[in-house]
Amino acid sequence: MNLSGSQIIEIKNDLIRWIRETMENTGGKKAVVGISGGKDSSVVAALCVEALGKDNVFGILMPDGEQNDIDYAYGLCKFLGIKHQEVSIKPMTDAFRNSLNEIKGDLIEDVSKQTTLNLPPRVRMTLLYAISQSIAESRVINTSNLSEDWVGYATIYGDTAGAFSPLGMLTSDEIIQIGRVLNIPEKYIIKPPADGLTGKTDEDVLGFSYKELNQYIREGTAEGNLKEKIDKMHRLSAFKLEPIPMFDPKLSIKAEDDTDIYKG
């Protein structure tokens, strides 16, 4: 959805204010952001710099072995002037794969391709939280966007996790527009999104373009059988973004609590 210049500036300013207030409400002062060099992590990191100051933003680069485009991640960190560190997750993902293979044929028939693909995002999130625990008053910031989340192109307890999500209600094209008003170099915000796992772009895997998806999300229009395909993907994956269901035994809670999760 193409927003006007004034709308984008207003959303950008509101985002910066919201990040600052949300950090304060959670007792956080520093942001830990996984940096891929793509638009989502670039925009989140840039927003955090505006909200918290560059000295309070830490970029973590987490290749699973050799990553051909890691220069983008380094370049983005240098452009923003934030502290950053590369940590290879390959020894960790290899350890998981080896352990899974050891029980193949006993507990499980085979280590599925999907299991292998979902390991890196979960390992990365575990690593981000381990690093955050070592940085006083820091919070892990989610970098997901509405477009990917809508069709389930996200790993539960992987890239769906974080203290809060600045871009979770914004489509990929809206994030590009925000990146431009933040003066992020074009190469970081138009880099074709890819999971870094399959060797394909997101659009190759999904079978439709983000432009088509975003139009359907915001305007409700889609050609041919695209609507049915998107609706099915959304329906089957909506659970990834919902709070964990809790059985309600219908017993009273007398303690005072302001959080909605304990209110039936």
Question: Could you describe the 3D structure shown?
Answer:
The chain is an alpha/beta fold and 264 residues long. The protein has 11 helices and 4 strands; from the N terminus they run αβαβαβααβαααααα. Strand 2, helix 3 (70-80) and strand 3 form a beta-alpha-beta unit. Helix 4 (90-102) crosses helix 5 (113-133). It is globular, with a radius of gyration of 19 Å.
Topology readout:
Elements: H1 5-25, E1 30-34, H2 39-52, E2 57-61, H3 70-80, E3 83-86, H4 90-102, H5 113-133, E4 138-140, H6 146-150, H7 172-181, H8 186-189, H9 202-206, H10 210-219, H11 226-237
Parallel strand pairs: 1-2, 1-4, 2-3
InterPro entries: NAD/GMP_synthase, NAD_synthase, Rossmann-like_a/b/a_fold
Pathway: Cofactor biosynthesis; NAD(+) biosynthesis
Pfam families: NAD_synthase
Concise structural overview:
The chain is of the alpha/beta class. Helix content is 48%, strand content 6%.
Strand order of the largest sheet: 3-2-1-4
- Give the low-confidence spans: none
Helix content range of the residues, please? Answer: 40-55%
Give the overall pLDDT as a whole number: 91
Termini gap: 37 Å
Main sheet characteristics: 4 strands, parallel
Helical run tally:
11
What gross morphology would you assign?
globular
- State the total count of DSSP E strands: 4
Domain NAD/GMP synthase: 13-236
Protein name: NH(3)-dependent NAD(+) synthetase
InterPro entries: NAD/GMP_synthase, NAD_synthase, Rossmann-like_a/b/a_fold
Enzyme class: ligase
